[in-house]
Task: structure prediction
Amino acid sequence: MKISENVLKDKGIPYVQKYPYEELSKTSKDGKRYYTTPDGALAKTVPSVTTVLSATKDMTHLHAWRKKVGAQKAQQITQESANIGTVMHSSLEKHVKGKERKPGTNFIHQKAHAMANIIIDNGLTNVSEVWGAEVSLLYPELYAGTTDLVGVCKNEPAIIDFKQARKLKKKEWVEDYFLQLVAYAEAHNKMYDTQIQTGRVFICTQDNKFQTFEINNKLLYEHWAGQWYSKLEEYYKKILN
Result:
């Protein structure tokens, strides 16, 4: 293990190159993401975590919302939120890697920069060590994905994801967030022989309110891990039928 020269000047979070993270090749089909993973001389395509969750999700509420606001308005809101999320993630990645961040001049960039600042000031203050950002993770033969951050949060090895939202969330609305956390943790544990059982989601709303959800004990972790493997089984049953 070596500690990079890259230490964040404003927050003092060391970026520790603890594991040999490598980027996996990504591909898309029908709007869904897959990863092509090298297995010796062969390559196997596996679904992303978000693809699994999308395929097994109850879409009733989403369809009702689209019908309520109208297809055009729904698409506009979805695209704007996606753009804000992309820029916010990029800003946060630059922050944890000690790179210069600029707010930009257009509405999307300025809003995303301000939201990233909220997460930095309210969430990343609890992170004492960063092992990797935008980390590709693979559970061989089953799935892959990219988590926003791996490191130490509140003195525990943790998977951390960043989210943007139009409004504050209720716990019952964010089941997929917990499933993502354990899916990434399970893949990391498989790849690097770790024992990560902590996960945190840092959320900033578009009106700059901070919120966090977390898995912070073994019992919670085992519950959500069981739910994740059930979703994975459901996914493969669907694509094989």
